[in-house]
Amino acid sequence: xxxxxxxxxxxxxxxxxxxxxxxxxxxxxxxxxxxxxxxxxxxxxxxxxxxxxxxxxxxxxxxxxxxxxxxxxxxxxxxxxxxxxxxxxxxxxxxxxxxxxxxxxxxxxxxxxxxxxxxxxxxxxxxxxxxxxxxxxxxxxxxxxxxxxxxxxxxxxxxxxxxxxxxxxxxxxxxxxxxxxxxxxxxxxxxxxxxxxxxxxxxxxxxxxxxxxxxx
Length: 216
Description:
The protein is of the alpha+beta class.
């Protein structure tokens, strides 16, 4: 059944952030005016999840920490503390940033669980690349004080595979964050939600407004 929420233009921002939104249903036969039904009064509380908001949260929660971390690492030079902080920003942004959209949509376990797995992948990949670097140094150094930790090519391959899997997983989570928001809306019985322009009748004249249209 189609659901229409008529909103005057100045009230849109307030209505979208409120969890207690009055919904106007199609009127029963014989009635000339629609009647209001409150989802909270019906025994359930619904907060609409915007697919675009889920996408933007995942995207910018990934890009901003990674950009800041990159700048910190590039400016660290001999400052080890700044380099560590920048590397941590890069790792956390790449690991948990893409999952913010899932957390916003209510899929906490899916979001943070995959984020933790990505953080593990970043750690394994970074350690493997460091081991490959040490092994390559030992290959070029014949001094007895250099101890090889394994074949440099094997470590490099492991590191490349781990970091590539992390990057692909991050891109996938960012791209599918809107799908998680749509699933949340469907679980609450509301689908195909959109805003359309409608005239709002008044006592003296008709004013422009918007209708939030969805389907149960």
